[in-house]
């Protein structure tokens, strides 16, 4: 039951008692006022009618009042000037303090910005990636199954194979559920001739606190596609067998271009969300160590930086720069490159869009269909282009590329190197496990998947010295503004002299007002003033002298 407010109603007995007390109080107050009596203010009797020169005296009294008012106004103006000068001086002091504080804060912000820039900079990415390669015994190069050749980095493979140490390189074909089975088999047969290749499908939705809430709220939703993981047992077996041959705990580095699923693979092997994942590129900024078991450590690494010499397609799909931060021209070029490497009919079927002549028309139609409009119903081409790039790098669009017709080994790979990389691994078991994974996967049909023409291997930058950083904007400090502020708040010597003069004027006015206060008496007393008193009161330094007016002159003797 809801609580009600207390009632303000009173019993009649109580109400009458309160009214009686109030009446008694008012009566008492009136009695005391009668006893005291009312003191009326005394009125000025004015100049008696019998007094000689009455009109002159009244005129002189009025003139005194006017002069007193003028003096008061002068004093008021001087006070205002003095307050303004004080305000200026205080503002100057405050500005000096603010500048000192601003310098301190700017120094702190610079150090913070430097730290942030160090973490987000391409050089730090290269530094962390090199740490992972040097520290790992086995390097897993993660490839997107939709475009495996475009995800391979020759610089990385050369750095691992030619390191001189006993490092192994494994290829992981991730996102296998977005590719037709026939195409996936072709790629596995092509890649296993160079490096041991594992077909993998990572779980994108890991078990954590939010997972239970999703199950409770949406019980009917099929979460099998996002929570199921394929290929994890096969990969763990391979790593454990290699660890037994080495007779030590091994460190496994996971490397690759952005959005290929490096962190998702580690989470799938661990069974818990150990690493942060997201659609944005470059979520992982430093090396992270995740313990799978006593004998295996996984090292998560930042993405490989795509070399600027790559074609527009490679830069659009494999660049580490986020689509939100990149310019609209770069995004549009990237979308144009993607559309040029795809079948137009299949793109129209996938997006349910009519025929289009160019990229802008395609983006306009797509924006209108998805309701991405600006003010006035104008299609938002920039945002729809960014969204399309995210879809193609993420796991929303199903497309596949064909492997090359002939097997051409890269210059850094020889038959001896291939044999060295395939040693210590049971390739028969690996092939069986891959076949089991292919049978268990729910792959799209070839008709529903878009045919994509791969641009070949994407060059990456691993060496920190070869990275070209762009100049940061915050380094250009606003020195001109600070100089202008200094000029505004600096006060000249003339202004200081004016302050001193005004102070002297105020002192003189105060002295004059004190003498006038003595001289300003009622007209009846003025009639009885002596000649000397009148002369002293009229010799004040006022604006107008008594000689200029027609007032009565008390210095002359009329008798």
TrEMBL record:
InterPro entries: G_CP_dom (IPR030378), Gnl3_N_dom (IPR014813), GTP-bd (IPR006073), GTP-bd_ortho_bundle_sf (IPR023179), P-loop_NTPase (IPR027417), TRAFAC_YlqF/YawG_RiboMat (IPR050755). Keywords: Acetylation, Coiled coil, GTP-binding, Isopeptide bond, Nucleotide-binding, Nucleus, Phosphoprotein, Ubl conjugation. GO terms for molecular function: GTP binding. CDD domains: Nucleostemin_like. Residues 53-83, 91-107 have a biased composition (Basic and acidic residues). GO terms for cellular component: nucleolus. Residues 1-119, 467-510, 540-559 are annotated as: Disordered. May be required to maintain the proliferative capacity of stem cells. Stabilizes MDM2 by preventing its ubiquitination, and hence proteasomal degradation. This is Guanine nucleotide-binding protein-like 3. It comes from Steatornis caripensis. The lineage of its organism: Eukaryota, Metazoa, Chordata, Craniata, Vertebrata. The gene is Gnl3.
């Amino acid at each position: 039951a809801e609580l009600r407010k207390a009632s303000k109603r009173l019993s009649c007995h109580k109400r009458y008692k309160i009214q009686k007390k109030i009446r008694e109080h008012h009566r008492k107050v009136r009695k005391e006022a009668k006893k005291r009596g009312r003191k009326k203010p005394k009125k000025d009797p004015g100049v008696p009618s019998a007094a000689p020169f009455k009109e002159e005296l009244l005129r002189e009294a009025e003139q005194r009042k006017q002069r007193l008012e003028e003096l008061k106004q002068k004093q008021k103006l001087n006070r205002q000037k003095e307050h303004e000068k004080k305000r200026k001086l205080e503002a100057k002091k405050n500005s000096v303090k603010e500048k000192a504080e601003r310098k301190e804060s700017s120094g702190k912000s610079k150090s913070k910005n430097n730290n942030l820039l160090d973490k987000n900079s391409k050089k730090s990415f290269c530094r962390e990636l090199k740490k992972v390669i040097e520290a790992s015994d086995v390097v897993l190069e993660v490839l997107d199954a939709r475009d495996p050749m475009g995800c391979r980095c020759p610089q990385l493979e050369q750095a691992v194979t030619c390191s001189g140490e006993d490092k192994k390189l494994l290829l992981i074909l991730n996102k296998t559920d977005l590719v037709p089975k026939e195409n996936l088999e072709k790629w596995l047969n092509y890649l296993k001739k160079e490096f041991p290749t594992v077909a993998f499908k990572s779980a994108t939705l890991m078990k954590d606190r939010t997972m239970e809430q999703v199950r409770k709220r949406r019980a009917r939703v099929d979460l099998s596609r996002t929570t199921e993981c394929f290929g994890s047992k096969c990969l763990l077996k391979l790593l454990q067998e290699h660890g037994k041959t080495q007779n030590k705990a091994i460190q496994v580095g996971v490397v690759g271009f952005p959005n290929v699923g490096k962190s998702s693979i580690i989470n799938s092997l661990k069974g818990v969300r150990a690493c942060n994942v997201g659609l944005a590129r470059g979520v992982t900024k430093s090396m992270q160590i995740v313990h799978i078991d006593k004998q295996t450590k996984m090292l998560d690494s930042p993405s490989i930086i795509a070399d600027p010499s790559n074609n527009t397609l490679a830069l659009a799909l494999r660049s580490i720069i986020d689509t939100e931060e990149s310019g609209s021209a770069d995004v549009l070029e990237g979308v144009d490159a993607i559309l040029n490497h795809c079948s137009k009919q299949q793109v129209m079927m996938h997006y349910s869009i009519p025929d289009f002549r160019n990229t802008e028309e395609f983006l306009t139609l797509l924006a209108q269909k998805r309701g991405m409009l600006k003010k006035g119903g104008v299609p938002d081409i920039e945002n729809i282009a960014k969204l399309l790039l995210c879809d193609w790098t993420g796991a929303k669009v199903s497309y596949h590329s064909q492997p090359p017709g002939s097997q051409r080994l890269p210059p850094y790979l020889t038959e001896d190197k291939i044999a060295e990389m395939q040693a210590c691994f049971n390739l028969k078991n690996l092939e069986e496990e891959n076949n089991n994974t292919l049978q268990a996967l729910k792959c799209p049909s070839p008709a529903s998947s878009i045919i994509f023409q791969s641009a070949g291997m994407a060059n990456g930058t691993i060496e920190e010295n070869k990275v070209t950083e762009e100049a940061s904007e915050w380094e250009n400090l606003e020195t001109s503004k600070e100089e202008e502020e200094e000029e505004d708040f600096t006060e000249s010597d003339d202004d200081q002299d004016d302050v001193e003069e005004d102070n002297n004027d105020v002192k003189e006015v105060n002295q004059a007002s004190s003498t006038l206060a003595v001289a300003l008496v009622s007209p009846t007393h003025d009639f009885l003033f002596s000649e000397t008193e009148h002369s002293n009161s009229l010799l004040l330094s006022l604006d107008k002298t008594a000689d200029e007016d027609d007032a009565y002159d008390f210095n002359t003797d009329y008798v």
